[in-house]
Amino acid sequence: MAIKAIMCDIDGTLLTTQGTISPLTAEAIQKSREKGILFGISTGRAITNVKKLLPQWGISGMVDAIVGSGGAEIYDYEQDHFEENYPLPGHVIQEIIDHYKDMDVNFVIHGDGYLYAPKEDENIQNLSAADQIPYKVIDFDEYLKTSHPKVMITCDPALMDAVIERGKSFHSKDFRSASLQTTKLLYEYMDPRITKTYGLKKIMSLHGFSMEELCVFGDADNDYDMVLNAGVGVAMANGSEKTRKAADYITDDNDHDGIGKFIFEHILN
């Protein structure tokens, strides 16, 4: 494969269910970079939060680029280039919050190494534990005076179907938004122009690479577009049906070295 860049989703893909990166996958990443292949992360998490967790995951110094917030942010280490595109205005986020005011959910915005929420409850506690990111309860009236890349709804998984159904009736009179479920705990709203593919195209352009020279790994529905549009789209065996159907290859799941095995067999071989 004439691959010049590898980009991986984090949750359910690069990380095991224990929140670690397997030794085989870490070795495959390092050997890819030694061969001159760019390695990066493409995630729904904010870039600031990802940067803080790289040492904990054991890949500090091994990441060349990050696509964060589902494509709304990009950061390139080599060029020290950061940009944010199409954030949601604060008043639109408030409209989304109001749309769910009668439901037992909480709202979350990534930033500065924290999960910010307007209230304390089990939903934010569970998400913080699952994502290994601390949270802060803050005044959202003040926080929403500025725009943010996206807003997430976190809830008990048993309530997710109702959250998704409620989302179908959301409408803002002066701003478009798109929404989708990204994990069993999260349902997210963002500008409809933002996708992981959008962010990946920007990273590839910075390096003079084409999307055909990119290999991506993903699992959830929010990875569907990048798996479909990359030159080599790889879905994890634990991935959603939608993303697996879009993939060129399906590799082993995130607990059985799916990424590492694929890199060694197909890219480094």
TrEMBL record:
User: Its domain of life?
Assistant: Bacteria
Protein name per its UniProtKB record = Cof-type HAD-IIB family hydrolase
Could you tell me which NCBIfam families the record lists for this protein?
Answer: Cof-subfamily, HAD-SF-IIB
Keyword presence, Membrane: no
Q: Which PROSITE patterns match?
A: COF_1
Against SUPFAM superfamilies, the record matches this protein to: HAD-like (SSF56784)
Q: Which GO terms describe its cellular component?
A: cytosol
Q: Does the keyword Hydrolase apply?
A: yes
Query: What is a single molecular function from GO for this protein?
Result: phosphatase activity
Keywords, A to Z, come to: Hydrolase
